[in-house]
Amino acid sequence: MQIGWCTLSCRFNQEEGVGDTPDSYAYDGNRVRKWNVTTTNYGKSWAAGDIVSCLIDLDEGTITFCLNGQSLGTAFNNIKTGPGVAYFPAISLSFKESVAFNFGSRPLRYPFMEGYLPLQDPPTADLLKAHRLLGYIKNVLSVTIDAQEEKLLEKDSAAWRLHGEPTILITLAHIFNYFAPLMCKVYLVEDVLMNFLLGILEGGGSVDEHPLIQQLLDLFWLLMEANEGCPKLILSSIIPLMIHYLRLTTAILRHEKSRKYLLNNLTFDVLRSVVFFYIKTPLRVKEAGLEELIPTTWWPTHFDKEGKDEREPTDESSDERLRRRAYERGCQRLKKRIEVVEDLQVQILKLLLNNKDKTTGEASRYIFLNKFRKFLQENASNRGQHPTALCPPEYMVCFLHRLITAVRSCWDEGNRKSPSSLSSEDAYVPPQLFYNGKVDYFDLQRLGGLLSHLKKTLKDDLSSKANIVIDPAEIQAASMDDLDEDEESGAAQRPFGAAAMGGALARPSWLSSPTLGRANRFLSTAAVSLMTPRRPLSQPEKVKVRTLAVEQRTEEDIEGSHGNDGLLLGRPQEEPDQPITDKSLLEIIDGIVMMYNLSVHQQLGKMVVVADEVHEYAVALKDTEEKIARCPARRADILDELQKSQNVFAEKLNHLSRRLAWINATIYSKEKMLDVYWLLCVCIRTIEHADATGSLFAFTPEFYLNVAMNAYSALKNYFSPANGMEELPGN
């Protein structure tokens, strides 16, 4: 990526971008260079999420760049200026790279340097008007009317209620007639409203202690919705900033109508959903504040015969022990800071998993569940030969851990209300989810093969063991599907000319079309008939079940009602007839298992590289120190080179040890290890319950077996030496 300025005379192509032509100037933070036909070193390395400011001074003829508000110095002098020369912002991107520009339509994150202005002027007049009107609103909220004394009295604005004095409500409605149109502008929402909302939370305390935000949101929906959907525009504008202000996000999501609007329309697209739960691993230790949190660094200096780190070396000196303990205390400080953020993220998820908020339509949990399933489908269907990273694996890891914590909390809360149900410690996914058509697995492989094939060959077992009767139309559809596959494979093996042999007997082309194949697959899942397993039937009583699209499902389709078991239709005889938990939570856990299989395990393996680097540099440093000790005094040249290497290795280890502390706190902590262990237990119990059904075990998705094996591998290989398997329950 090269970003900077260019003139109209520049002509770019696939080979030449910004900075590759005479009248274009660029900064590349990936290669840490500046470009204007030729290239030289410049600036600092950038990372995803960084903000680059591009400053051009046409009076002095200079171009300067800033990274996260810090000037990188003048990059170019004596640029071409004069009549007929105009410069425009420009960028060259590689495949999969993306960037968001702000020319002044939103408040700048970092104040611009003196003498510079954004390309787009701020709406100064509207800003003054919005601040004045907001002041009126605050004044009205902080007064009450004394009817007897006929005067206004001051009160705490947090005590204001929507259903209060009608005079105040009418006054607010009049103010909002002028305020609402201004809030349709993104700049004003961010500069005026966001700062006001953040100011409410500035005093600290829990979000519950600030009900004024809820009252304001009530007002917005009541008085502004008619104004071009103004509350929706406000929430759309706030979303990019909510990621940086989790306490404000929590406060907004506590408002039911706002929460459901965000869930339905904004929060859960492919990537935006999980950004709220991501804790970014810092590449630059200084900017992350790790030097202050962990002033003393440490790394292993004792190795066993195999070259591995010794966890508790017997010959550790007192200085080494003090240094190690100081480092561990710093790691604990860092972990506590991170836990504050993680707790807020879990609170957000628990709000999204609320299944009691039905006053304004479908409960949040079922909106979340359907969006979550769609999210999994989009990522699962993207794992071909050339997959595109829809959701980066590092985001998935954080999302998985927060979701496990939130789901287990909801599960155990239900268990306290219904003690006869299972606790989350004993969680598993019942086998009927795998064959009753209620949960879509997006054509993912089953242990016994394709679903259409299994339903055809195991129809008698489904009928006898799970009271599921396959409609004859489904058998025919499955047979046609198989015929399509046979025809396609046969055509691939025959010479081209042979396809026309047989004249009138040649199979019509439409019969082998992909469209018909898809239709057959749809029919094969849509034509399942199920018997109610609660009473013996002399004649199979068929209940038509149609596999709904993810976004079409309702609470009844998931939880069931009036004898309908929802997701648990078709309980096999071997499956215990006891309450487990809310069926919606079972599907979320099923999604968590799928998510681990998609990319989480792969990412856990990647992050081990940092620990390996620490080990390699520690070994190299120790080897260098031993060489320095053996180096003869007369070889000052060699000693000088060795000491330079020693300084390089020590500096690198200082950086890596702090970065490793962050990774151990966010990815390889004991709590994260217990999450993976819990997931392993869920998979093992699920496989055991599925295995008890005999032949129906073939319907189990293959990824359950993969996750069981990979989770065990992760516990054994990835979490040590920070945490060992001996710390797991039962050891």
UniProtKB/TrEMBL annotation:
Q: Basic and acidic residues: which segments have biased composition?
A: 552-562
| Span list, region Disordered | 551-576
Molecular function, one GO term? ubiquitin-protein transferase activity
Sorted alphabetically, the Gene Ontology cellular component annotations on this record are:
cytoplasm
All residue ranges annotated as the B30.2/SPRY domain in the record: 1-108
Entries under InterPro entries matching the protein? B30.2/SPRY, B30.2/SPRY_sf, ConA-like_dom_sf, RNF123/RKP/RSPRY1, SPRY_dom
Q: Name one GO biological process term.
A: proteolysis involved in protein catabolic process
Keyword annotations from UniProtKB, A to Z: Metal-binding, Zinc, Zinc-finger
Pfam families with a match to the protein in the record: SPRY
What is the designated name of this protein?
Ring finger protein 123
Biological source species? Cyprinodon variegatus (Sheepshead minnow)
